[in-house]
Inverse folding.
């Protein structure tokens, strides 16, 4: 029994060792191939990126080289056109100097064509004569209607503006009158404030001559009233000055 159990245990141990060896062998067979595939993919990606960068650099250098070759050509063409323009202007000026009558005629013709008034006069006396009387009447009637519409709009706008001006003038007149009346009343108030302040000063001088605590207390009250009157007088003077600056006599 014991020998048979040991034999079985040895057999099982041997089987486990065989299984362990088989799995290690499979892992070693799989792992190198996986690493080589990853390395190969990484190398291929790197080579592709390097080739793309070289291609982009080559294309960019070709583009800039083409541009540098094209700029002098453009510059030379512009110089050629500029020289041709200057030459034509010089030729025209010399021709005008040699033929002043022709130059004056061309200038007059250009004036008739370009300026609005002479152009209308020229059209009226040339192509306008070719129009029928009915067509001329229809055109004139359209112009009259357009002018009438413009005049009506201007009349309405002018009436509105005149009404606004009259209202503003009335408001200004009434406001001017009200401001003048207020200024007169403020002037009268200022005179009353001056008189009260003078009375307060005289009363303070009189109280200084009376001894005693009651007189001292009254003098303090009168001094406080005199200070208030002085502040009131300053405010009234500022208001009178502001009304005078507006052009209203008070």
């Amino acid at each position: 029994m014991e020998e048979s159990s040991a034999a079985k245990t040895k057999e099982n141990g041997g089987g486990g060792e065989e299984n362990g060896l088989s799995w290690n062998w499979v892992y070693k067979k799989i792992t190198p191939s996986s690493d080589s595939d990853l390395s190969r993919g990484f190398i291929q990606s790197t080579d592709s990126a390097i080739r793309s960068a070289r291609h982009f650099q080559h294309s960019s250098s070709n583009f800039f080289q083409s541009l540098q070759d094209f700029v002098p050509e453009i510059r030379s063409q512009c110089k050629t056109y500029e020289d041709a323009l200057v030459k034509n202007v010089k030729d025209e000026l010399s021709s005008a100097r040699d033929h002043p009558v022709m130059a004056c005629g061309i200038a007059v013709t250009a004036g008739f064509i370009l300026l609005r008034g002479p152009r209308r006069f020229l059209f009226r006396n040339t192509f306008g004569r070719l129009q029928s009387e009915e067509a001329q009447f229809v055109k004139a009637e359209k112009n009259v209607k357009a002018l009438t519409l413009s005049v009506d709009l201007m009349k309405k706008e002018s009436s509105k503006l005149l009404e606004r001006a009259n209202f503003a003038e009335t408001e200004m007149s009434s406001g001017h009158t009200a401001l003048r009346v207020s200024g007169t009343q403020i002037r009268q108030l200022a005179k009353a404030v001056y008189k009260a302040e003078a009375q307060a000063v005289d009363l303070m001088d009189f109280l200084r001559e009376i001894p005693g605590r009651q007189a001292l207390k009254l003098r303090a009250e009168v001094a406080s009233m005199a200070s208030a009157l002085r502040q009131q007088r300053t405010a009234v003077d500022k208001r009178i000055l502001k009304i005078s600056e507006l052009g209203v006599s008070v």
Notes: The helical segments are 2-98, 100-114, 116-125, 133-208, 213-245.
